[in-house]
TrEMBL record:
Keywords (A to Z) from UniProt: ATP-binding, Cell membrane, Membrane, Nucleotide-binding, Transmembrane, Transmembrane helix
UniProt domain FtsK: residue ranges: 451-651
Protein name: ESX secretion system protein EccC
InterPro entries for this protein: EccCa-like_Actinobacteria, FtsK/SpoIIIE/SftA, FtsK_dom, P-loop_NTPase
Entry GO MF terms: ATP binding; DNA binding
TM region positions: 38-57, 63-84
Gene: eccC_1
Lineage: Bacteria, Bacillati, Actinomycetota, Actinomycetes, Kitasatosporales
Any one GO cellular component localisation term in the record: plasma membrane
UniProt xrefs under NCBIfam families: T7SS_EccC_a
Species of the source: Streptomyces hundungensis
Length: 902
C-alpha cells in the first residue's frame, strides 16, 4: 500500500465562546399602599362635612341650603374622581414595570440563545459526531489535529447530553415571593429553567483523567459505542501521539477486525507475514508483551499529574478478556499515559473502573469514582462505517519532519501538496479525471500561514478565477524556478494533455524547464534565446501563428465568440476537435524585452485576445524595472512576488515593498489577486531526490520480503511465509551515492506522465540546422516494376517536378517540401553560392531526386554530373547501357558511395 504523508497545519480552533456570568435583574415588586393616598381621599370628605355644617346652620336662608346641596354633590363627585384616578395610576405604573421587565427578559433571552448557538457550534466542531468523521478525513485539514500539548488531547466523545450554558445565568436577590409581581416572577423562573442548560451537546470524557474505564450495557449498543469512541480517537489523534491496542476473546474478534487498518494499531519495528504487526491479540497477556517497550519506565497514574507529552498515550481496549492478576494492565494504581477501556456486554458484575459508562439503546449514564452522574444518549457507529473509516485512515502517515507548526519555514514536497502518495505510483486515470468548471485550471502551489494549500486559479475573473495572465518576480535563490516547475507539474498532473498544453520558454537557457519536454502536454520548450536573438523572432512568429490558428478554428467551426462557447458546444455533442487551454510560461522576460523591446507588443496582444482563445500568459523574471510593463499592467491580474533584490522591485510587482523583506527561505512569497489582500505562502519542492519504496523501508529498518505471495490480511498475527531479508545498513564510512545522479521527484512523475495522453500540437519547430535526407522528402520509397526504386503514387508523375528541400514556415507551424518545377519555358535553375556553401550538394540532390522520380526515358543530363556518374539509372553515365540488367530491387546494383539514388 502506498502511503499518503500528512503534514498537520497549525490547528484551527472554533470561535471563542463567551463565558462571563449574566446576573439577572430582579422582577418588579407589587406597589404598597401609601399614607399620602389615604389622606388625599379623606380631605374631600372632611371638606364636605364642613360645608354641610355651614350651609345647614339654624336660621340659614333657603338659598344657602340649595348652595350647600350643590357643594355636597360637587365634593362627592370630586372625591370619586380622585379615588378612581389614584387607583388607575397605580395599575398603569405596575403595567409599565411589567412591560419593561419582560422586554429585558426578551433581550437577555436572545443573548442567551446566541451564546448557546456559539457553544453548540464550538462543541460540535471540537467533538464531531461519528457520522461526520468520514467527511473530516476526506477533507483532510483536520485529520489528527490534536497535539499532545493541547488542552483537549485525549478527550473523546461518548454521546449527547445537557450541559450548563457557557455564560452562567445567575438568579437575582429578590424580595419574598408574595411581594413580587407574579407575572414577571413566573417569567423569570421559566427563563432560568429553559436557558440555564443547553440540550444535546457532546458529552466528552478525558482519558488522561482516568486510568480504567468500563463500558457496559446492551451487547450491540455497547460495542457500537466502543467503535464510535475508538474511531473518534483515531481520527483526531495521530499515531505518533496515541496508540490503540486491542485484546479480545475469540467470540468478540470479529467485532474488532476493522482496527487492523488503523495506523494507530501498527507496532513499529514488529513485522509478520502481512507487513507491520498489528497491536491485536486474543490474550491480554500477549498484548502486554507487545506493549512492553512502551509501558516500561512510565510513572504511576495520578489524575492531577503532569501529562506525558513526550510519550504516546496508550489506549488498551479489552473485550471479553482480563489481564493476569499481577500484570501491569491489572494494576490498581495504573500508569501515567495509559487508559484501559473494558468493554462488558451485559450487566457489570465485577469491579468498575474510575469511570463507569452504562449504555442502553437510547440512554447513557456516566458515573465517576467521585459519585458524579451524568445522563444522555450514547454515540453509536456501525461496523461497516467503522471499517470504511479505518480504510480511509490506512494509507495516512505522519511526515518525517513532524508537525508544520511553522509551515512557512518547513519543506513541503510536491507529492505531499497534491496528496499523491509515492511519486512512482501516480495514476493518471485518477488524477486526470474530469474536473468541474470550478476546479479547472486550479492548482495548489504551496501552503499558507495556516498550513492550508494556497491555490492559483488561472481562469479569468468572470469564471471566479485569478487569471488569465500573471506575473512572477523573484531574486536569485528565491525559488522562482522551483515555483515555476511546481506550477507546471501540478497542472500537468491534474489535467490531461487533451485539456491543457504548455509553451515553456527560458530566455537565458537555464535548467528551469529541463526534463519537462517528455510530457505530452508540452507544445514547445524554447531555451537559449539569449545566445541567438533570431530565435526570439522565430518564437514570436510561432506564438502569433498559434493565436491565428485558434482564431481560424473558432471561425471555421461556426464563428464561436470564444473558446468557452466552443467547448460548451463540443461537450453538448457537436463534432468538434478539442482545443486545449495553452499556458505560456516565459522565464526572464525582462531580459528578453531588453534585447527585443518590440516584443512587448506580442505580450499585449496575448493579454488582449488570449482570454477568448484559451491562452494564458505567465511572465517571470529575476528583476522588474519601473515602466517595464508599459501597456501590459492592466492584463496581469495576479502577481506572485518572491524575495526581491530591492523594495522598488517589490513595489513594481506587488504595489508594496513586502516581498523585499521576505526571509531567505527559497519558495517564500506573496500571491496577490486584484484588490484582495496578499496571501503569504511557501512553495512546494519538486527537485528533491526521489526515494524508492525499498529505500524508505531500509531507512525504517524494516524487512523486505523476498517472496511476495498473497496472504490474508487479518488483525491477528499472520504467519511469515517468506524469508525476510533485512537490507544492509550503510555504515558511516561507506561512500554515499551522489544525489545529483539520482532521479528527482520531477523526473519520476514526468516518466509516469510520458505517453499517457495525446501529444500536444507542436507550436514550435526548431530551426533547420540539419539538412533533411532525400528519403525524408520522398517517404515510402519502394521498388516499382518498370520504374525501379521510386515513390509509388508520386504526385509529380508526368511532370518535371522534383523535391529539393524543406520550406520553413514558423508562423504556420509547419514545414513543406520545396518543389522545383522544370516544365515549361521557365524550367531553368541557377545555383549561386560561395565555397563550401553546398552548391555541389544541391546539384547532387537535384540529380538524385530526378533519378528517384523519373525514368531515363523521361529526362537526361549533360555537363559535370560526377556525383552520379556511376549510377546506371542516370542517362549519360558510363553504366546507363547496363541499367536494365544491372537493376536490382534494392538499387541500381553499382552502389556508388556518392550516388544518392542508391
Amino acid at each position: 500500500m502506498s502511503h499518503i504523508i500528512v503534514k498537520r497545519p497549525p490547528r484551527a480552533l472554533p470561535s471563542e465562546v463567551p463565558t462571563e456570568e449574566v446576573v439577572l435583574q430582579p422582577p418588579p415588586e407589587l406597589p404598597r399602599g401609601q399614607q399620602e393616598g389615604a389622606l388625599m381621599q379623606l380631605l374631600p370628605m372632611l371638606g364636605m362635612g364642613g360645608s354641610v355644617v355651614f350651609f345647614f346652620m339654624p336660621n340659614s336662608q333657603p338659598f344657602m341650603k340649595i348652595m350647600g346641596m350643590v357643594m355636597v354633590a360637587s365634593t362627592v363627585a370630586m372625591s370619586v374622581a380622585m379615588i378612581v384616578r389614584y387607583r388607575r395610576g397605580s395599575q398603569g405604573q405596575l403595567a409599565d414595570l411589567r412591560r419593561d421587565y419582560l422586554r429585558y427578559l426578551g433581550q437577555t433571552r436572545r443573548a442567551a440563545a446566541r451564546a448557546a448557538r456559539k457553544q453548540r457550534d464550538a462543541q460540535y466542531y471540537l467533538h464531531p459526531s461519528p457520522e461526520q468523521l468520514w467527511a473530516l478525513v476526506a477533507e483532510g485539514s483536520r485529520v489528527w489535529e490534536r497535539r499532545s500539548g493541547d488542552a483537549d488531547f485525549g478527550q473523546v466523545r461518548v454521546g449527547l447530553g445537557p450541559q450548563a450554558l457557557a455564560t452562567p445565568l445567575v438568579p437575582p436577590q429578590t424580595a419574598p415571593v408574595d411581594q413580587l409581581e407574579p407575572l414577571t416572577a413566573g417569567a423569570m423562573q421559566r427563563f432560568l429553567a429553559t436557558h440555564q442548560t443547553v440540550e444535546d451537546l457532546p458529552m466528552a470524557v478525558s482519558l488522561r483523567a482516568f486510568y480504567r474505564m468500563t463500558l457496559s450495557g446492551e451487547t450491540q449498543t455497547v460495542r457500537a459505542c466502543a467503535r464510535a469512541l475508538t474511531a473518534s480517537l483515531a481520527c483526531l489523534h495521530s499515531p505518533e501521539d496515541l496508540v490503540i491496542a486491542v485484546a479480545c476473546s475469540s467470540s468478540a474478534a470479529a467485532h474488532w477486525e476493522w482496527t487492523k487498518w488503523l495506523p494507530h494499531t501498527q507496532a513499529p519495528g514488529l513485522f509478520d507475514g502481512a507487513g507491520s504487526r498489528r497491536l491485536f491479540s486474543r490474550s491480554a497477556a500477549e498484548l502486554e508483551e507487545l506493549l512492553a517497550a512502551r509501558l516500561s519506565g512510565r510513572p504511576r497514574f495520578h489524575p492531577e499529574g503532569a501529562p506525558l507529552t513526550e510519550e504516546p498515550h496508550i489506549v488498551v481496549v479489552l473485550d471479553g478478556v482480563s489481564p493476569p492478576p499481577m500484570s501491569v494492565l491489572a494494576s490498581a494504581e495504573g500508569l501515567q499515559g495509559v487508559t484501559v477501556i473494558e468493554v462488558v456486554p451485559g450487566e457489570l458484575n465485577g469491579a468498575r473502573g474510575d469511570l463507569a459508562v452504562a449504555v442502553q439503546p437510547r440512554t447513557l449514564r456516566l458515573e465517576s469514582g467521585h459519585g458524579l452522574v451524568y445522563e444522555g444518549t450514547p454515540d453509536v457507529l456501525s461496523y461497516e462505517s467503522a471499517d470504511a473509516l479505518a480504510r480511509q485512515l490506512a494509507p495516512l502517515r505522519m511526515a518525517s519532519g513532524g508537525d508544520d507548526d511553522e509551515p512557512l519555514l518547513a519543506n513541503l514536497e510536491f507529492p505531499d501538496l497534491l496528496g499523491l502518495g509515492d511519486a512512482d505510483s501516480v495514476d493518471t486515470a485518477r488524477t486526470w479525471r474530469p474536473r468541474s468548471a470550478a476546479e479547472r485550471l486550479r492548482v495548489p502551489i504551496g501552503v499558507g500561514e495556516d498550513g492550508r494549500p494556497v491555490m492559483l486559479d488561472l481562469k479569468e475573473a468572470a469564471q471566479d478565477g485569478m487569471g488569465p495572465h500573471g506575473l512572477c518576480v523573484g531574486a536569485t535563490g528565491s525559488g522562482k524556478s522551483e515555483l515555476l516547475r511546481t506550477l507546471v507539474l501540478g497542472l500537468a498532473v491534474t489535467h490531461s494533455s487533451e485539456t491543457l498544453n504548455f509553451v515553456l520558454a527560458d530566455f537565458k537557457g537555464g535548467a528551469t524547464f529541463a526534463g519537462m519536454a517528455q510530457m505530452p502536454h508540452v507544445a514547445a520548450v524554447i531555451t537559449n534565446l539569449a545566445d541567438d536573438l533570431t530565435l526570439v523572432d522565430r518564437m514570436g512568429d510561432s506564438i502569433r501563428g498559434e493565436l491565428n490558428r485558434r482564431q481560424e478554428m473558432l471561425r471555421d467551426a461556426g464563428n464561436y465568440a470564444n473558446i468557452h462557447d466552443y467547448e460548451r458546444a463540443r461537450l453538448a455533442g457537436a463534432p468538434l476537435q478539442p482545443v486545449p487551454s495553452l499556458v505560456l510560461v516565459i522565464d526572464e522576460f525582462s531580459e528578453l524585452l531588453t534585447a527585443k523591446p518590440d516584443f512587448i507588443e506580442m505580450f499585449v496582444q496575448i493579454g488582449r485576445i488570449g482570454r477568448s482563445l484559451g491562452v494564458h500568459l505567465l511572465l517571470a523574471s529575476q528583476r522588474l524595472e519601473e515602466g517595464r510593463l508599459r501597456g501590459l499592467e492592466t492584463y496581469l491580474s495576479y502577481r506572485i512576488g518572491l524575495r526581491t533584490f530591492s523594495a522598488a522591485e517589490s513595489r513594481a510587482a506587488l504595489g508594496v515593498p513586502d516581498a523585499y523583506h521576505l526571509p531567505s527561505v527559497p519558495g517564500s512569497g506573496y500571491l496577490k489577486f486584484g484588490t484582495d489582500e496578499m496571501t503569504r505562502f511557501k512553495a512546494a519542492y519538486v527537485s528533491g531526490v526521489h526515494r524508492t519504496g525499498a529505500e524508505r523501508s531500509a531507512a525504517l529498518g524494516g524487512p523486505v520480503p523476498v517472496d511476495r505471495r498473497p496472504v490474508l490480511f487479518t488483525a491477528a498475527e499472520v504467519p511469515v511465509t517468506y524469508a525476510p531479508s533485512v537490507p544492509a545498513q550503510r555504515s558511516a564510512s561507506a561512500p554515499r551515492t551522489d544525489d545529483a545522479l539520482a532521479d528527482t521527484v520531477l523526473d519520476v512523475i514526468v516518466r509516469r506522465l510520458e505517453a499517457r495522453g495525446p501529444a500536444a500540437h507542436q507550436v514550435w519547430l526548431p530551426p533547420l540546422d540539419s539538412p533533411p535526407a532525400l528519403d525524408a522528402l520522398l517517404p515510402g520509397l519502394a521498388p516499382v516494376p518498370g520504374r525501379g526504386l521510386t515513390r509509388p503514387g508520386y504526385e509529380g508523375a508526368g511532370r518535371l517536378v522534383v523535391p529539393l528541400g524543406l520550406v520553413d514556415k514558423p508562423y504556420e507551424q509547419r514545414r513543406d517540401p520545396l518543389w522545383c518545377d522544370f516544365s515549361g519555358a521557365a524550367g531553368h535553375l541557377q545555383i549561386l553560392g560561395g565555397p563550401q556553401s553546398g552548391k555541389s550538394t544541391l546539384v547532387r540532390t537535384l540529380l538524385a531526386s530526378f533519378a528517384l522520380t523519373h525514368t531515363p526515358g523521361k529526362c537526361s543530363s549533360t555537363g559535370s554530373t560526377s556525383a552520379v556518374a556511376a549510377c546506371p539509372r542516370w542517362p549519360g553515365s558510363p553504366m546507363s547501357a547496363a541499367w536494365p540488367r544491372a537493376w536490382t530491387p534494392s538499387g541500381c546494383g553499382v552502389r556508388s558511395p556518392r550516388c544518392m539514388a542508391c
